[in-house]
Amino acid sequence: MLGLSLPSRGARRRRRRRLRRLLRQRQISTLWATTYQPERYEKCLCFRASTRKRNTKWFVVNISNRDDDNDNDNDWTKKLRLSPISRTKCDSDSSLVCVDSTIYRLGGFYRAPKCYNNRPTKDVLCLDASSPSPRWKSIVSMNVGRTCPTTVVVNGKLYVMGGNSIRNPAKDTETDRWAEVFDPHTKKWSFLPKPPDDLLPSGENLVMCLGLEDLHKIMVTPYNSSKQAYLYDISQNIWTSKHHVDLCDHRFVSGVDNKDTAVFGNTLYWYDKNYRSVNAYEWETGNLLSGKLKGLGTAGWKMEDIRVQKDIYLFHLSGKLFCLVWNEELSSTVHCSKFVVDKSCYSHDNCNGSLCAWVLSSQDYYLGHNTTLYDAALMNKKSLFDSAGKVQSHQENSSAMSVELPN
Fold first, then answer.
1. pTM of structure
2. Where is the FKB95-like N-terminal Kelch domain (predicted)?
């Protein structure tokens, strides 16, 4: 005998229960994949990652549904090693948004040589990810310098709010500069009307901003206000306020921000990592729905570990289909799961029996040694590189290679 000890009876029993649970989740996910057929969509994920040397790498990953997609593949042991499409200096103080296949960087700090008092910059840079040789170029600057502004895209226009460190502004002067909008077609910036005083941050930009395209409005909620939500009406160019106790209370309990919130129609969706649940708030009716997200497997257990800090991003892909992106602190691996949310089904496992959410497929991406995800955004695919190392319209470069990496 070599002195090897066998697992105890309790350990073997727990292992069998775990395997049965994983098998049941795999079967249900397979059932969803065979019964739910989403409409064709073309989407890509844009990753902004930082290195230990304080540089920035940019990645683009194609997550479109194609005829050869295997939505039943839920194996987290296979990773795709990504190759950056661009490298820049550290720009973590700028805001990241995407319009079609164009990536925008807005604001940040102007760091002059031998200058210790950094000031916000008006600079706006863009990169066309559909180009075979993507390069950053400067476009029309903002009217006001901003640092880490909150930016949302509605109907192809960029709405930028805050980030200009307003402190006790003079009446009818600085308050009108708190928000502005950029039209990529006319290439012009214009200020929005004066917002409610409660929206103005003291020193830092502390607001949550979501675009409600179907309503032609933008919802803005100050983080220091737990009862009030404000609406900017794009067509009428006015601000209005609305009292939403249920939404705000639940949002603050869950610790939700812009990253892990998505909008589909008139409904706001967000993911609660503490309970692994998907929540939905119907804006017009005020109904609050919730349900457990099933099928995350071992990745879901990692997400529940409160000892590890995680960044979570939620994106709406098409119809009932969403995408959840997250990574662990200081990790070079990014997790991505596509899942379906259905309001019409009922499950006793749900928090209130109102939502069903099941993972269809999952994929891990490896960003490289000493490289950590800093930000993510969703873009419409337009002749972009896909994750299999191919290009839709060009054959020169690739942004991803399919490589199996050990855990």
1. 0.80
2. 58-343
